[in-house]
From TrEMBL:
PANTHER family: TRNA MODIFICATION GTPASE GTPBP3, TRNA MODIFICATION GTPASE GTPBP3, MITOCHONDRIAL. The keyword Magnesium applies. It is found in: Cytoplasm. Keywords: Cytoplasm, GTP-binding, Hydrolase, Magnesium, Metal-binding, Nucleotide-binding, Potassium, tRNA processing. It comes from Luteolibacter ambystomatis. Exhibits a very high intrinsic GTPase hydrolysis rate. Involved in the addition of a carboxymethylaminomethyl (cmnm) group at the wobble position (U34) of certain tRNAs, forming tRNA-cmnm(5)s(2)U34. Its cofactor is K(+). PROSITE patterns: G_TRME. Its EC number is 3.6.-.-. It holds the Pfam family MnmE_helical. Binds 1 potassium ion per subunit. The keyword Magnesium applies. This is tRNA modification GTPase MnmE. Mg(2+) binds at residues 253, 274.
């Protein structure tokens, strides 16, 4: 196992959490509510001096307060004048979110008063918290594993009910628990292998080798089940890149506006009105669709329109779902407006169906709609759900969805396990098998933060908002 050192604490024991020295751990403070004017703002303070600093700010109220009980108090400036009047809650470590002593003050939500109260905490000894630093301390102090810490950010950024559900499962430790179970099973196999290494005169007999391989196969199957959720995780977190394309004046912008429920794009009979891509997100049955309206594809009339068409082609190449829009009343084009990648989900939508349909479209599989009369959109939604496999059978029972970092770690572990299994086949090479098993352990350890690097932690927690 790799030992590592974080910027403000001692060396970890086998990659696990350690308790920092109070003299070397600063006390941090930040506004934990969203910026702007609101009814209430929350200021969070955490660290070994949190209560002492809160005493200076409140005239000694913090040290006398019962832990985990909100009490009314005033925030005082250096001259003893009142800056704000609100509720303070003291959390004594380790029974706090961060595992340290922490204080939260809920006051009035004005921008100026909030800034002055935070400045008072900073003047009394706290330092400004960085992005995600409270959650990072919770991780370092063993309150969360790394997957749970990432689940905090997923919960904050969730745009749909399914994304929210997956984030809750991750915060409850589902991914971490399954990863640790797989890791423990590998540790058992490694113990057997290393026992044979310690006694070189003993060879692994075929029955023992098969039994060990069977155990690794079960671990590999569990990892495969987690890897199978990677695409779902990407869709839940990033949304389905849904590109609306077609010739000019077929109703692409009208379709975008109807799906959004408001007038986002300019609709005009003048061809070439849309010169650039327009992107908005809509919730479809718990899945975010990132709708991208593109410029109509035709022979460009000027350089600006030509650039818009080039951008349309790039969007089509990177799409998860393509909605090709055509005018039902016009003849079917001999060629598509743009090439469609073979492996991309693609739906044909015939707009203006209320005005009649040209004979060329007879028997063609498509969704018939009318943006003008708001017809056919229930059918369109059902077809999109079917194309994305959004039925309850495929999504309703899946509350776990790994992210790209988990996927990379699990894929490495899976590859190492396959190599270890090969080395356990007769004639077994126990030393090479042990090397691959340790690599699998390290890869799984990275998922939950058992072994990690400072750079990786910095990347993960820098995506958090300040105050979380």
């Amino acid at each position: 196992m790799i030992d590592w050192v974080d910027p403000w604490r001692g060396t970890a024991d086998h990659g696990g959490p350690v308790t920092p020295s109070e003299s070397h751990t600063p006390t941090i403070a930040a506004v934990a509510t969203a910026p702007g004017v609101g009814a209430v703002s929350l200021i969070r303070v955490s660290g070994p001096q949190a209560v002492a600093i809160a005493d200076r700010v409140t005239g000694g109220r913090a040290s006398r307060a019962e832990p985990r009980q909100a009490v009314r108090c005033r925030i005082l400036d250096a001259a003893g004048a009142t800056l704000d009047d609100g509720l303070m809650t003291v959390f004594r470590g380790p029974r706090s979110f961060t595992g340290e002593d922490a204080v939260e003050f809920a006051g009035h939500g004005g921008m100026l008063v909030t800034r002055e109260v935070l400045s008072r905490f900073l003047a009394c000894g706290a330092i400004p918290a960085g992005p995600g630093e409270f959650t990072q301390r919770a991780f370092f102090n063993g309150k969360l594993d790394l997957t749970q810490a990432e689940g905090v950010m997923d919960l904050i950024s969730a745009q749909t009910s399914l994304a929210l559900r997956a984030a809750r499962e991750q915060m409850e430790g589902t991914i971490g628990r399954r990863t640790i179970e797989a890791r423990d099973e590998i540790l058992g196999v490694l113990a057997h292998v290393e026992a044979y290494i310690d006694f070189p005169d003993e060879d692994i007999d075929p029955d023992t080798g098969r039994a060990l391989c069977d155990r690794l196969d079960r671990v590999s199957a569990a990892i495969d089940r987690l890897l199978a959720t990677a695409d779902q995780g990407r869709i839940l977190r990033e949304g389905v890149r849904t590109v609306i394309f077609g010739e000019p004046n077929v109703g692409k912008s009208s379709l975008l506006n109807r799906l959004l429920g408001y007038e986002r794009a300019i609709v005009s009979e003048i061809a070439g009105t849309t010169r650039d891509t327009i992107e908005e997100t809509v919730n479809l049955g718990g899945i975010p669709l990132r709708l991208i309206d593109t410029a109509g594809v035709r022979q460009a009339g000027d350089r600006i329109e030509e650039e818009g068409i080039r951008r349309t082609v790039r969007q089509i190449e990177s799409a998860d779902l393509l909605l090709e829009v055509a005018d039902a009343g016009l003849p079917r084009p001999l060629l598509r407006p743009a090439d469609v990648p073979e492996d991309t989900r693609h739906l044909l939508i015939l707009n203006k169906a209320d005005l009649g349909e040209h004979a060329d479209w007879s028997g063609i599989e498509a969704v018939r709609i009318s943006c003008q009369l708001d017809q056919g959109f229930d059918r369109l939604e059902a077809v999109i759900r079917e194309a994305l496999h959004l039925g309850s059978g495929e999504w309703g029972d899946h509350a776990v969805a790994i992210n790209a970092r988990h996927q990379a770690c699990l894929a490495r572990a899976r590859q190492s396990l396959a190599a270890a299994s090969a080395f356990l086949e007769p004639p077994a090479d126990t030393e090479l098998a042990a090397i691959d098993l340790r690599e699998a352990l390290d890869a799984l350890g990275e998922v939950v933060g058992r072994v990690d690097t400072e750079d990786l932690l910095g990347v993960i927690f820098s995506s958090f908002c300040i105050g979380k």
